[in-house]
Amino acid sequence: MSNRISRRDMMKATAVGGAALAAHLAAVSAAEAQGEAEEPWPELPPVRIHKVYVGRTGGYMARPTAEKAKLDKHLEELAKKLGDVEFVGGETIPPDGTAEVAAKAAKADAMLVIYLSGHGGAAPVLGKLFETGKPAVLFFQPFGGHGWMYFQRWRKEGRKVVLLSTSDWSDLDRAVGLLRVPTRMAQTRILAVGPLRGTKAACTAEEVKKKLGAEILPVPNSRILEVARGIDIKLAEAEAQRYWIGQAQKIVEPKIPEIIESVRYSLAVRKVMIQEKAWAIASSRCMGNPRGCLTFSKLNDDGLVGACEGDIDSTLTMLLFGYAFGVPGFITDPVIDTAKNAMIHFHCTCATKMDGRRGKRLPFVIRNQTDTGGGVALQVANRIGQAVTCAKLVNLDTMLVCPGKIIETSTSPLACRTQFTQSVADARRLFLHWGTDVIQGGVMTLLHRVVFYGDYARRAEDLGALMGFKVLEEGCPPRTT
User: Relative to the CA of 293, which of 77, 99, 113, 204 has its CA 20 to 30 Å away?
Assistant: First the structure.
């Protein structure tokens, strides 16, 4: 049996943080829709997670012997649910030796260590497992002994390990889902159209590759425009009607031919991404003709990443959250309103599936782009009461987060088309300490943030543990994790 994911199997898989699966399906579907004969989108092999049990079962202060079999069954079901992971290994220390197990685990993509029982003796020797450098989750349950007091040292040493101390197995499920992210990032190619903008480290392809594993590939916009001219106009018309015109609440400024040309450009971008096997695109040429607003909205709907203004920091943030949590991001030009203890978000490109590729589309109006008064953009009605996380990875080493809820939407002519207001813990502190003194750069670098549906402030810390970045909550006093 092949160990690669078939397209049929991927169609069955649920999108529990599975942005890679959604991206694959979106790209393949697009290629088939265009009737292209080019090489299909590559199928990604499952992420191989080596599981290890630690400690004895049965007897005094030890987990019940039957629990190991229950955990095996639970992980088997979890693998089916996630759709793109494979558990290997399964040794128990003791009787298996730590060094021997570590050598086997080093051949996998990631590691899951389940601490069944033990006091002070077993925990220190586990350091050999984490010395492999593989991203790992350590799962400990209450009444599993006193060895948990030694776990924290591995985080302090910079080991890429998520530490769990919980009786809730769903916490284990979420952490295992995060174990896919380092591997998926290492398989990611990002198209850079025009100069990248953002923090210095993120604008350096070598640094991005070294830190996160992703590859940045420069592509001239002229190539995309040439491909767009070759897109069958009938195909663009059909796609425009199917996905945009026929679904919009109304169309305000743009004419139908403008929408069709924007869709033509969107299909061209997708075609080039398929050719280059890229999951994401960051373009600083998006204000040209046609503009990229509609293109990026569609890419983000499909589980891919489209980022405007060449913002590589936001591109990387969207990739990380997409792989980890299965949701698209909304790049925003925020402002602070201390009177409402809130932050207002606005921009001209927004996904209509903010819950994820399989989610229901939000209502939207087709508008022009505010700054230029031209092009095709969206005014998306985001959901009031929805929990959100505003975030941005900067310098490749720090993730800024700010959780809250959407408290209102607006349509001010002074801002970009999609607008909503998010509650924050302390708007005055957020205003006075914007960026928490970790961002240096131009206006866009300092300003842009990305908003995601869901509260991921705490889970972002676990993601940071696996990817090697720290997490700071903007607008809040520093706290320990």
Answer: 204
Bridging pattern class, strands 110-115 and 136-140:
parallel
Report the pLDDT averaged over residues 22-27: 42
Mean pLDDT of the chain: 89
Amino acid at site 179? L
Residue type, 119: H
What does the alpha-carbon distance between residue 250 and residue 271 come to, in Å, rounded to a whole number? Answer: 29
- In this prediction the pTM is 0.91
- What is the identity of the amino acid at 221? N
Q: How many CA atoms lie within 13 A of 232 on its CB side?
A: 8
CATH 3.40.50.360 location in the chain: 45-182
Q: pLDDT tens, 78-106?
A: 999 999 999 999 999 989 999 999 999 99
Q: Quote the DSSP letter at residue 96.
A: S
H helices present in 13-64, as ranges: 19-34
Q: How far apart are CA 416 and CA 297, in angstroms?
A: 14
**Rounded CA gap, 184 and 212, in Å?**
10
64 pLDDT tier (thresholds 50, 70, 90): confident
Q: What does the block give as tokens for 182?
A: 């380092």
Region(s) of the chain under CATH 3.40.275.10: 187-473
The pLDDT of residue 123: 64
CATH number of this structure's domain 45-182: 3.40.50.360
Query: Looking at the domain that runs over 187-473, which CATH code has it been given?
Result: 3.40.275.10
Token couple for 112: 């899951």
